[in-house]
Input
Amino acid sequence: MNFASALQRSDAPLYRQVRAVLMNQIANGELRIGDQLPIESELCQQYKVSRATIRQALTFLEHEGLIERAAGRGTFLRSLPSPRALECLPERVSWGEAVAARTRRNGPVILHGNAVPPSIVEDELGLPHSTETYFFIKVLDDGRGPIAAIKRYFAPSIAELVTGKIRSARDFTRAFALAGRGEPKLHHGWIEAILAEPRFAALLTVGVGAPLTSLWWTDYVGNKPAICSQMLYSGEKIAITF
Output
């Protein structure tokens, strides 16, 4: 699977996100005292951020006594973060958990039909420009209120399989597989940060312009792209691992 590892949460500066990821790697034993960190250019490529962002993140880690930067030699792990510092980090979840577990919830389907999708969906599903395709929008509820909204677009070859029962199913993947065309398999995905437009602000009971995390992913059925989905949520402090 191919995942874009860009850090794009709008409610936290990018350097803080890089710092949090590096601290989690240290806490998980991926980096040990004395290990050399990747060079700045490699970190820039890995996290899709500027060199200035990487330097700012490393400066904070250096001030916290966690790393040591030696001119001409590189950056090395000097000590481990305290338990108190780790408590402040966001919950870490895998991409599979973020996409699969968080979508297995009940909630109303508020809209469905045919429409011209965004260009990114056209590219993902291999659709000719301005081709209408089937979609639905569903609100996901945790029993206390809406926590996310999900929009799914379908390749025309499988759109006829998406019945009301499948749209409203708690476990969409299983329900779709039972329709007889095979189980959708997560192929690749990416993360964005956006500001809530009026429709989704109302659905998620947040203010217009509030920061939302947007998870996009494409499922394949067989060896072909079949479903392109977007999930929007706010409030959770999570770090997606790839």
User: Anything to note?
Assistant: Residues 2-89 form a domain with the Arc Repressor Mutant, subunit A fold (CATH 1.10.10.10). Residues 35 and 76 are 6 Å apart (CA to CA). The chain is about 30% helix and 30% strand. The chain has two domains: 2-89, 98-241.
